[in-house]
């Protein structure tokens, strides 16, 4: 039997003619490439859908409708005693300013000769509730202007704004108590007269959060400051601690079971869900150390815990990639171990460390979950911080927390702002990541 | 090494200022997400009209807010808890144990709970009975309690279209859920006679215990996917209805009034919900909203008493004020509340 096998002629193989097996292998490879291209295509499609969605829903937030009116600052309403005493002027609350606004819009409408069945109160309904606050702020700051007529640019109410942006359409307003079709007629007439106009809205980027009654006045600026202060805390703490820890672990620590355990735990820490750090922050920083709630300092501390493992891991990787010959050379000419590390290894590893830090910061910037637990979500970002100490300690929100908060609110105008906030947040993240890539490309050395 | 020095000095500054800024100068509020819009409207107006900084308002739910409220007295605890229900005996006890003894209860007004569906779908005219028959775990059929067999609204009430029952109700952590159970499901339970059947079957030593057990059995909702608990906010309920046109959701009146282009509201026992019909008591499903003030913080936290007084003042919480414009039903006894706040009258009368 064995003889029989040996005598069988070997199958002839030609380089020009493919065997079945080769054909199968080639086909398998082609299929795999197709799968790969398919996977990338699906990924790109998802990205395109996401970007399209964000841009189409969010760009509206960067435009806002304004109404320009000449307001007569009546002395009889704003300063009854006529003595220009600031204490007396301050006693007039924003509610006391509504008749003045009513007069102003009524005068404008009659001045333009627009015919409308609306009463002055309904006309004033086109304006944001922010108008009275804006007016009062101006009068308190410039009491000498009382009695004059001053031109103001007021925000329009969110429904009017939505009408100009196409979000509110006439067919759907039958049950809406915030706007009527007569009011929309007036809006059309005022747009024609150039009184109502849509312009770029800096207040969205720089302004403070606003309550549910006036979504048109809400901005992301103050929470941006909150995010900035948190990132400062993270940078000031996570970078030195992380770098020091990784230099010690990489260059000085002996290789034994203790360092092994530490290493495993750092990797584990990097995978801990962020909400866990939030609970930890609540228990340690707020309940035990009695730091103030809702403060960016506490947020920064919590995010530091979250960012540390990322920075340690990337720093160790970049220290490791510095060739040992450089250390040996430094030690060979008589440098101490510390000199070798700080004069030679660390500068060479710096681009990698920076890249890791920036990516860690970008991750922390987009984090919401831990902030939920330390009181940074809610109606908070309404006072712009004055100075560094207040920026760290007075209550504030953060950009992702603000977006989360807006997405929860009832008025559809807040929804638009949530998408607008996402655009701003994404711009930050993309910028940070691009800087990280550029740094790595420019300064990283390969051996 | 200058970087290290810089970092060290930054940390030192932060540490020093942390102790310096311990004196908190803004009012801190937390609690019910139903009260949050109203509280934020008041906080904003308060910041504009007074020389105090704008109060900080967090949400998280009535229970979570009251829990934080009862953590103790001091600048690290909140000053005001918003609640969409009355504080419970248990919570008052927990408060007292932590040293929070003098609590001022302030009722700000009433909030309506409405049933709404997709604007292009069928309209409904409900009674509590319909909801009980649609959602209860067990219903009475020919005098016997059986698992709820109803699949469409037509099964519940012949006047309704044969639309599959799909309800999105607030999860159990919401204060709204309790009102929905009490004013709708339990009312329907009693009206259909299921309550008596359950009472007869209930186990318990005393009549009171039996009564309680029957009530508990009444409000048990079916778990076959027809009724879905929404633990998030009303925006989530709205999103569910947008993706499932048969869905009926439970909303606050103010939320519905801000989304009239997407939702149509159902009547309850023939009454259309509105601030007027709720104020007169015709519309049955409503509840009072409260906030609770820690008396020990008045005089310590600047602006706390002014905030509370401003909240219940006529120009804010009155029937023409910004709160009622947003959807709050003004309290007819607001004057009494104003007097109580001015006198700092605490719960239990020991002011």
Automatic annotation (TrEMBL), chain A:
Keywords: Cell membrane, Membrane, Transmembrane, Transmembrane helix, Transport
Biological process, per Gene Ontology: phosphate ion transmembrane transport
Domain (ABC transmembrane type-1): residue spans on this chain: 224-436
Gene3D superfamilies found in the cross-reference section: MetI-like (1.10.3720.10)
Pfam families named in the record: BPD_transp_1, DUF3333
Region of interest: Disordered: 1-20
Listed GO MF terms: phosphate transmembrane transporter activity
CDD domains per record: TM_PBP2 (cd06261)
Biased composition annotated in UniProt, kind: Polar residues: 1-16
Name of the protein in question: Phosphate transport system permease protein PstA
Organism: Tritonibacter multivorans
Protein's gene: pstA
TrEMBL record, chain B:
Pfam family, one: PBP_like_2
Keyword Ribosomal protein: no
SUPFAM superfamilies (UniProt xref): Periplasmic binding protein-like II (SSF53850)
Residue ranges constituting the PBP domain according to the UniProt record: 17-315
Gene3D superfamilies: Periplasmic binding protein-like II (3.40.190.10)
First and last residue of the signal peptide: 1-20
Keyword vocabulary terms for this entry: Signal
Protein name: Phosphate-binding protein PstS
Native organism: Tritonibacter multivorans
């Amino acid at each position: 039997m064995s003889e029989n096998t040996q005598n069988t002629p070997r199958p002839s193989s030609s380089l020009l003619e493919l065997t079945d097996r080769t054909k199968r292998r080639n086909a398998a490879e082609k299929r795999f490439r197709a799968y790969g291209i398919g996977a990338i295509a699906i990924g790109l499609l998802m990205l395109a859908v996401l970007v399209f969605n964000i841009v189409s829903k969010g760009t509206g937030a960067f435009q806002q409708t304004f109404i320009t009116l000449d307001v007569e600052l009546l002395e009889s309403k704003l300063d009854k005693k006529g003595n220009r005493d600031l204490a007396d002027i301050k006693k007039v609350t924003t509610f006391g300013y509504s008749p003045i606004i009513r007069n102003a819009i009524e005068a404008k409408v009659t001045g333009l000769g627009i015919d409308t069945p609306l009463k002055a109160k309904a006309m004033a309904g086109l304006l944001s509730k922010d108008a009275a606050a804006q007016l009062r702020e101006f009068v308190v700051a410039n009491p000498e202007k009382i009695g004059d007529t001053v031109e103001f640019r007021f925000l329009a109410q969110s429904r009017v704004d939505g009408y100009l942006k196409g979000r509110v359409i006439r067919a759907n307003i039958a049950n809406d108590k915030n706007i009527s079709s007569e009011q929309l007629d007036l809006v059309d007439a005022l747009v024609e007269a150039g009184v109502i106009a849509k312009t770029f809205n800096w207040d969205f980027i720089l302004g403070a959060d606003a309550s549910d009654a006036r979504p048109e006045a809400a901005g992301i600026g103050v929470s941006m400051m909150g995010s900035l202060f948190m990132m400062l805390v993270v940078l000031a703490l996570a970078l030195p601690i992380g770098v020091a820890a990784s230099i010690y672990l990489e260059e000085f620590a002996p290789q034994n079971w203790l360092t092994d355990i530490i290493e495993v735990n750092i990797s584990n820490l990097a995978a801990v869900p962020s909400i866990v750090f939030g609970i930890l922050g609540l228990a340690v920083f707020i309940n035990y150390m009695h730091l103030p709630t809702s403060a960016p300092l506490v947020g920064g501390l919590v995010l530091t815990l979250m960012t540390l493992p990322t920075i340690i891991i990337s720093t160790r990787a970049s220290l490791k990639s510095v060739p040992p010959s450089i250390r040996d050379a430094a030690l060979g000419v008589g440098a101490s171990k510390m000199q070798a590390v700080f004069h030679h290894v660390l500068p060479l590893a710096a681009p990698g460390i920076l890249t890791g830090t920036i990516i860690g910061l970008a991750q922390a910037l987009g984090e919401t979950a831990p902030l939920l637990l330390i009181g940074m979500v809610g109606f908070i970002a309404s006072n712009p911080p004055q100075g560094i100490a207040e920026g760290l300690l007075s209550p504030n929100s953060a950009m992702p927390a603000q977006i989360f908060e807006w997405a929860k609110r009832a008025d559809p105008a807040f929804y638009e702002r949530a998408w607008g906030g996402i655009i701003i947040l994404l711009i930050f993240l993309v910028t940070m990541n691009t800087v990280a890539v550029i740094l790595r490309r420019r300064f990283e050395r390969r051996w | 090494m200058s970087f290290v020095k810089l970092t060290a000095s930054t940390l030192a500054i932060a540490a020093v200022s942390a102790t310096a800024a311990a004196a908190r100068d803004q009012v801190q509020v937390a609690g019910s997400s139903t009260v949050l819009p109203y509280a934020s409207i008041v906080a904003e107006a308060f910041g504009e009209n007074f020389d105090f900084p704008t109060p900080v308002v967090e949400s998280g739910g009535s229970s979570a807010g009251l829990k934080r409220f009862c953590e103790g007295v001091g600048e690290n605890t909140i000053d005001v808890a918003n609640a969409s229900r009355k504080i419970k005996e248990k919570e008052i006890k927990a408060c007292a144990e932590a040293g929070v003894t003098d609590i001022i209860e302030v009722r700000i007004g009433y909030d309506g709970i409405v049933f709404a569906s997709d604007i292009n779908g069928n309209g409904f005219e409900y009674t509590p009975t319909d909801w009980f028959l649609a959602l209860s775990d067990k219903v009475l059929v020919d005098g016997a309690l059986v698992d709820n067999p109803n699949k469409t609204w037509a099964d519940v009430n012949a006047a309704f279209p044969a639309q599959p029952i799909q309800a999105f109700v607030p999860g159990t952590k919401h204060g709204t859920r309790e009102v929905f159970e009490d004013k709708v499901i339990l009312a329907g339970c009693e009206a259909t006679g299921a309550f008596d059947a359950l009472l007869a079957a209930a186990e318990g030593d005393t009549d009171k215990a039996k009564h309680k057990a029957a009530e508990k059995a009444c409000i048990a909702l079916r778990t076959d996917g027809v009724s879905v608990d929404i633990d998030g906010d009303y925006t989530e309920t709205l999103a569910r209805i947008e993706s499932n046109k048969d869905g009926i959701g439970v909303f606050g009146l103010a939320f519905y009034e801000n989304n009239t282009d997407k939702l149509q509201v159902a009547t309850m026992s023939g009454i259309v919900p509105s601030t007027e019909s709720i104020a007169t008591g015709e519309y049955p499903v409503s509840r009072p909203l409260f906030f609770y003030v820690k008396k020990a913080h008045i005089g310590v936290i600047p602006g706390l008493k002014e905030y509370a007084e401003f909240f219940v003042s006529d120009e804010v919480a009155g029937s023409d004020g910004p709160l009622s414009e947003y959807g709050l039903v003004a309290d007819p006894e607001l004057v009494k509340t104003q007097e109580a706040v001015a006198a700092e009258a605490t719960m239990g009368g020991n002011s």
